[in-house]
Amino acid sequence: MNAEKSTKEAYKSYFIFNNQRTLSTISPSELSITETDECSIFVDKTRRYDNQIVIHRGYTPEKLEEHLGLFHSSYWPEIAIEPQANTPEIQTWLSNRGFSPAYDHEFLELQASHYQAIASASESISIEHWDHSKADDFLALLKTSGLECTDDIWNDKRSLYCTDTFRCYIATIDGKPCAWTTSYLHNDHGILANAYTQESHRHKGCQSALLRFRIEDAISLGIQVLLTDVMPNSTSSKNCKSVEAVS
Fold first, then answer.
1. Whole-prediction pTM value?
2. Could you give all domains of the chain from N- to C-terminal order, each with its CATH number?
3. Checking DSSP bridges between strand 176-186 and strand 166-173, what pairing results, if any?
C-alpha cells in the first residue's frame, strides 16, 4: 500500500472509531462510506457531526450535486476540500448553494525517523498514560471541560476508552490533572488529537509536554508515521513543527 493510501486508511479507521465512541448518543451507528479517487463520503443520520464529503481531486460541481442527494437536510454534510482540489469552480458552486468557509485545517505528518526531542520548558509538568483501569477517571476529567454523558451511554462506550488503540494521556501540575490528549493507533500510523487544557493552566507548556510524550510512546510501540491536524499559524501548529528535524 502506498503512503497516501495508508494515510487515508488510517484516517478512515479513526473516523469509524470516533463514530462508535461518541458520547453524544447511544443510538446504533448507521454509518455508510463511499470512496472513490475523487472523494470520500460519510453518511450517518444518527450522528450530527459524522456527515462529510472530503474532496480529494478532480471533482466537479455536477458530482457534488449528485452526492449531496445522499444527505437529508436535517443532517447536511460538512464539505472538506483538500488543497489540490480547491478550484474557483467548486468555491463558486458552494457559495451559490449557501455553504460558507468555517475553518481551515493544516494536516501535518511526521516520519518517526525525523523526530527530534525538544527539552521541556517546565519541570513542574508530569505526564501520565492512563490505561483502561482509569477510564472512569478519564470521563470525570472530560466532564470538567463541559462534556455531558449519561450513565447509560458511558456503560455502552466505556470499553473504547483508555485502551491500547485509543490511548489517553494526562498532564498534571503539583499532582493535579490539568490537561489531556489522545492518540489513535492504526497499523504503523498514529493520529494525535483531542488536546484540551483547563483554562487556569493554559500557556504553561502542558500541550508541548503531552505532544512529546505521545510521539515517543507511539514510536516505542513501532509507529512509523504520526498524523495530526491543527489550525494554521496556531501555537499547536508551531509546537508540532518544532519536533521535526530539519535536514
1. 0.93
2. 3-105 (no CATH), 110-241 (3.40.630.30)
3. antiparallel
